[in-house]
Amino acid sequence: MDEAEPVDEDNEDMILDQIVAAANAGGLDALTPDQQIWLEDWLWGSGDEEFQDFAWDEATEPLCFSAEDVWMLEGKIGDERMAELENGGTLTPDEIEWMRERWLAELKEEPDDDKVPGIWTCLLTASDGTQIRTTRFCYGSGWEAQRELRRIDPV
After folding, report:
1. pLDDT digits over 57-114, tens only?
2. Distance of alpha carbon 120 from alpha carbon 110, whole angstroms
3. Considering 19, 22, 77, 130, which has the largest number of Cβ atoms within 10 A of its Cβ?
4. Is 75 inside a domain boundary?
5. CB of 88 within 8 A of CB of 97?
6. pTM of the model
7. Do residues 134 and 149 lie in contact, with contact meaning Cβ atoms separated by under 8 Å?
């Protein structure tokens, strides 16, 4: 397999064309390290990625909720129980599960790769119409978020 072309930092369209051509021919492994870095930076700033699903850690790990989070139980518990929880009462296992479900549902409704750990994809189209789909796993949130380009597939 031929080595992919180096990244030309001055022309975004040409860079994307080079990356799409290389990835279409050989997937993620066909990109140079510079192309991978450039693509990951571009994906992070593009706003073009679409949320697909949660990463396993956010969907399966137990979450720690506090009295500030009990608003998520509105409609599930009565006013008296809500007041008890707001004053430091202990959550039941069912209440924790209801909060977890609501938290995940809200994240799915308004995904943001800075806040929602999970699987994100992006469809890239070169100027000649060739397309690839990138798949990234994003972990954590805010400045401590880690993003990892895992696959590139021809479309």
Report:
1. 555 555 677 778 899 999 999 999 999 999 989 999 999 889 988 888 887 888 766 6
2. 13
3. 19
4. yes
5. no
6. 0.68
7. yes
Task: Read off the amino acid at residue 11.
Answer: N
* Domain match, 104 and 133 both: no
| Residue span of the structural domain in which 28 resides | 12-49+113-154
Q: Give the Å distances, CA to CA, from 110 to 55, 90, 97, 130.
A: 16, 29, 20, 30
**Confidence class for position 142, pLDDT limits 50, 70, 90:** low
* 6 domain residue, yes or no: no
Element (H, E) at 132: strand 131-139
**Burial of 68 per CB tally in 10 Å (0-12, 13-18, 19+):** exposed
User: Does some domain include residue 4?
Assistant: no
Number of domains within the chain:
2
